[in-house]
Amino acid sequence: MMIIFREFYIPITLITLILGYQVSSYLIWQYFKNKSKAIGLNKFVLAFGIFIGISVSSLIFRIIYSFYIEDQSLYLITANLASFVVFLSIVAFLILMCLKMFSIISNITLTRIITIILLSFSILLIILGLYSPINTYILLLNVIGFIYILYIKIRLLKVTTKNIARRFKKTLIGELIYGIGLLFGGEVIDLINPAFEELYSIALIFATIMGLTIIFLGIYRFPLFLEFGWRENLLKLFVIDQNRYTGLYVYNFKESIQADNKKKESSMSEEDREFLLSKGILGVDEVVNLIVKGKKKKLELIERRNLLILVKYGDPPFSHITYALLVKKKMKSLEFILELIKDQFQDHFKEILPNLSKFLGNEQTLFSGFDPIVSKLTS
User: Fold this and answer.
1) Of the residues 11, 56, 104, 161, which has the fewest C-beta atoms closer than 10 A?
2) Region 242-253: what's the mean pLDDT?
3) At residue 107, what are phi and psi to the nearest 5 degrees?
4) What's the pLDDT tens digit per position in 103-153?
């Protein structure tokens, strides 16, 4: 019976291992792919990738001590190492969460205290010896660390935009299932009735596979983790035809946000109302004049009335089209959003932009269909 179980369990575990490395590699690749954009919160993606990559490696030790080791001392060492690998993945994640940029989603001091406590207890357990049956105590540390990781992710879920939150819920469910399968798949098996050990092991390895699969479905083409508060800093978007010195398209983000929240104009926050009334919102004519004046200099940032205008220029053959984003303050995330808007506008109207002279006077009707795209990109 043991041989039949081994022939089934090992291939399934190896498949789980490969899937885990694929998820980890994809997350780390996404981080380095977007690293040049210098959007710091993408380090969360890096932390998640490292966590998955290290933790899933514990399955290698699980195969070794479950089927290939008979010596009791060596068995304990290998089983403890499997537990420590999971522990290291949790600590690696928490260390990255100690960075100041994550203070908005968790108490950095508390994160550091928990990390130090976990490390201190782990050192104590190592002193006791890897040859001792300490994996149950390591399991306790792992459960505490894993619960805190879930707490951080729930906090992150509450402050992200709708687009990210929908996807993030899926990864959170997957991670919970993955954590149960990984944490309890090998570390408490000795507490189970021997008659149910094989069934227990199979159920939890399948839980691990299911969790990883759900995580992958959630992270595939996952939106960038932009800086917190970026949406509240959006004011207006202008698309300008520099050849004709006219505005083609205007989008008011304040009206959009109020509509999303089903609020009336009178419900605008006092802070926003004071900001807009004291500094004024530039009209399209004024923005056109500012852009046209800076045409030769290729301005990328214009300051006006203590407001900022981020500027992007169209790619050939649409280089005469300029994109201006009126914002409260400069953020890397907003530059990235403007780049996305530019790419989408060029792609959506690629047949129209070279022949704008044929549509004189109809710009508002022609380009109003771009509203849902802007709304989706900034939701």
Assistant:
1) 11
2) 81
3) -75, 110
4) 878 889 999 999 999 988 888 877 766 555 566 778 888 999 999 999 998
List helix spans (H) across the chain: 2-33, 43-56, 58-67, 72-97, 108-128, 135-159, 162-184, 197-219, 253-260, 270-279, 284-293, 332-348, 363-367, 371-377
Q: How confident is the model at residue 290 (pLDDT cuts 50, 70, 90)?
A: low
Q: Is residue 341 part of a domain?
A: yes
214 token code pair? 């759900």
Amino acid letter, 340: L
Residue 224 lies in a domain: no
Are 162 and 61 members of one domain?
yes
pLDDT of res. 174: 93
Residue 138: φ, ψ to 5°: -65, -35
Contacts 24+ apart (CB under 8 A), 123-130: 130/76, 130/77, 130/80, 130/81
Residue ending a domain, among 158, 184, 219, is 219
pTM: 0.72
Tell me the pLDDT band of 271, cut-offs 50, 70 and 90: very low
Provide the terminal-to-terminal Cα distance of the chain, rounded to the nearest Å: 55
Say if residue 214 is in the same domain as residue 118.
yes
CATH number of the domain within which 267 lies:
3.30.450
CA distance 231 to 164: 13
Q: Is 229 left (phi over 0), alpha (psi -120 to 50) or beta?
A: left
pLDDT of residue 292: 56
17 lies in some domain: yes
